[in-house]
Amino acid sequence: MLKNFSKASLAIALGAIALSSFIGSNPIRQIRLQQTFFAADTLPKPTLPEGANPEDPDWKGIDLDPKAPVQPLTPAEEARLFLLPPGYKIEPVLTEPAIQQPAAISFDGNGRMYVLELRTYMLTADSKDELQPTSRISRWEDKNNDGVYETGTAFVDNLIFPRFVLPYGKGCILTMESDADNVYKYTDTNGDGKADKKELFTNKYGRSGNVEHQQAFLYWGMDNWLYSTVNAFRVRETPNGVIREKTGFNRAQWGITHDDNGKLWFQGGASGLPSYFQFPIHYGNFEVPNEFAKGFDVPWGAPVKLADMQGGMDEVRQPDGSLNRVTGAAGNDVYRGDRLPADLKGQYFYGEPVARIVRQINPIVTEGLTTLHNVYQDQKSEFLRSTDPLFRPVDMTTAPDGTLYITDMYHGIIQEGQWTQKGTYLRTKIEQYQLDKVVGLGRIWRITYEGKERDKTRPAMYAEKSADLVKHLTHPNGWWRDMAQQVLVQRNDLSVVPQLTTMALTSKNSPARTHALWTLEGLGALKTSVAQKMLKDASPQLRIQALRTGESLYKAGDKTLEGDFKQALADPSTDVQIQAMLTAKFLKLPGLEEGIKAAMASSKAAGVKLVGEQILTPPKQRNMGPFGAPELSANQKAQVERGSLIYNELCSQCHGNNGMGTPAGNGRLLAPALAGSQHMQAHPDYAIRVVLHGLEGPIEGKTYAGGLMASMKEQSDEWVADVLSYIRNGLSNDASLISPQQVARVRHKTADQKGSYQYAHLSKLIPYELQPQTLQVTASHTASTRIGGNVSPASAFTYEGWSTGKRQEKGMWYQLEFPKEVSLAELRFTASQTIKKGWKPTPGQPMASMTIPFIQNYPRAFVLLVSSDGQTWHEIQPETKGVSGDNIISLNGTKAKFLKMQLSENLADDGDDIPWSMSQLKVFAQE
């Protein structure tokens, strides 16, 4: 502790000299520092916040003496403070000022490194301006091959807290912004290193909430599906559009990776632990006890002295001020490179940025179940530690050069503003050390090993012939194999199918056979005979890959593999037997229950028993906290199940078993694909009208061999609602269910329709969404729904949401002005919810077991008014009661240039101080 004036002054003086040298003498460090530091002896002595009990665990024993501010070091200085096992070295490859606040990296097929720069993350302790459009995705190259990425461009700039970056072909990436719903494809068409083309890739992908709780890390799995954290689904691009399938809950926040067998590993965040890793996530969730070895949740960071732990003093290891229980985690990687010691291959790495460590995990599989062990636990250490309190490891990556890269945000605060509010223990520590002043920095590090030089071969896959890309599937570095597979699938070059088939069946390189098999699957060129041959392979791991790739064939309608799948339930390998059970569950094979029971009877392995029991009797879904997804009610599930039966009995003949359309020869389909269909997910009136009255002729210029969708108006409202609910919710689509009442309304409205619709005519009859950027939005009161959000009425159109910021009162209003008078069809919004004021989690409590008290901020009662001039108003319908969740209000074609929602009553006196909040606002008009 610095209790002595002269010692404090000396510490500040030395720090100032070091900082002055850092800024002035090193040309690559001419950074725009936003810090303003003050000597410890000039600071007021911190005191406990009002109402804090000094005997509470959060505060007991806290050091409140003035402290010298934490100051940033140069990369060279920081490097000297790293602690690594013998033989390992660490070196910077890219640092500030070139990049700021990096959160993740990714490499494209030419080895160029894309950096996700979250330039607005925690610039103040109140997360001010966190959602301003000033973040970016930059792209960097090491053109002189000296190991440093010296040449870069802002590939996509002016982004709102982007969620991920996934290279998706030559000069192309996928990304999305916070509080948004769409994933976009950005392409550099002229080769200048900056994206100049933006296209919608897929929608219905986002969610609202704290920026630490939204989806992240869009990731290309070995199975050719794209996965993300938080979202319980996967997506995939096909010739007929982007499709999706539901998966289990991954319970992750920041990080996805896969191993040599293609199994995905998801990284938790607030838990400080890996989240889901036992089995591939698309098989659903399995609860496995004792996944972590004893003591796994104890971090062994180096002394940092600050004790800046969000959980308070009971999470501080005394006397060194380090973290005594993991509380945050970010960025993961199963190391699959070839330029570090061989015993690192297959080891799992992740960062704990609160503890300032990178952990190495050894996964041990026993009887089909995995237990994770901290490799350095017995030594009370970690793979990588630092005594620099600004070291913030947030991402790990196997690089093209065969080494391991660490993304270090090098930041003062690593906890979002919702948990750093005034009066908290963490805020006290932030202000004590002026951590909020250390912003705008960031480093990417390379870890190497003595005697093992990095691979200096520069990837150039986008210029290579497909036949040469196939050869990369034999590469000892998993990054090369992954990227070669992805480029081949993106090219859709079927000329290499014979080469891939030979490799899959005969190569002596097991990883190459695995990748060849999945590349065939990605090209749609995997033959049943190949899968059947590999189901009899001597290698259990290759038999597992045959089962998994064979699922695509079965889903597409090839049932000849059913017998092979059932035979695998009796495989002598425990791992194959478990995979066969998972495959049988996923495909809903006939006789599933009997087959699972037989498998369990034939094996004493713990994994077979656990998987079998949980397939037969699924465990109750855990409380997902902020990472869950709304479950369908029992009635909704029954409706979707009824619709599934209708679809498979009738609709699948033309539209395909999986909704991808039935092939009719010559590249044509018998009927349009419904999976991933924007039409099916758009306003429900489109689908209802088509089913009731039929559709014929070209659709957006494309003709189909079937020619005609017959009218089904003789069916009941319930029948139509059931089948459309299944299509909108169960065939790679993610849209609301349809009620019989909605069908009845459209049926009545279209009673005069004669014959089938033509698409061009029908499209003009369907309500269309008015784009928010064309509207003038005002409100009587305006606040963000969360700390650090945008204070704008227009936020109601986003996932962030708008709020009055104060208790609901009669007369509060929200107003829209349209560019011209329109015929209003419908108004939709989601009533936002917030965490009850004053609530905080119990220190050490797992996220999954938390019961979070939410307050429902829906408008209790309101009227809708319209105007032609913004001065004279009249009500267009009786008082409306808001509801929690989705609110849909029909406007019946009312013509107006202004629309106003106005509260018609005060909040009940016995209610909490509940504001009026809205998000995902949509306004529909009609021709």
From TrEMBL:
Pfam families: Cytochrom_C, DUF7133. SUPFAM superfamilies: ARM repeat, Cytochrome c, Galactose-binding domain-like, Soluble quinoprotein glucose dehydrogenase. The keyword ATP-binding does not apply. InterPro entries: 6-blade_b-propeller_TolB-like (IPR011042), ARM-like (IPR011989), ARM-type_fold (IPR016024), Cyt_c-like_dom (IPR009056), Cyt_c-like_dom_sf (IPR036909), DUF7133 (IPR055557), Galactose-bd-like_sf (IPR008979), Quinoprot_gluc/sorb_DH_b-prop (IPR011041). GO terms for molecular function: electron transfer activity; heme binding; metal ion binding. Residues 638-731 form the Cytochrome c domain. Keywords: Heme, Iron, Metal-binding. Gene3D superfamilies: Cytochrome c-like domain (1.10.760.10), Galactose-binding domain-like (2.60.120.260), Leucine-rich Repeat Variant (1.25.10.10), TolB, C-terminal domain (2.120.10.30). This is C-type cytochrome. It comes from Spirosoma aureum.
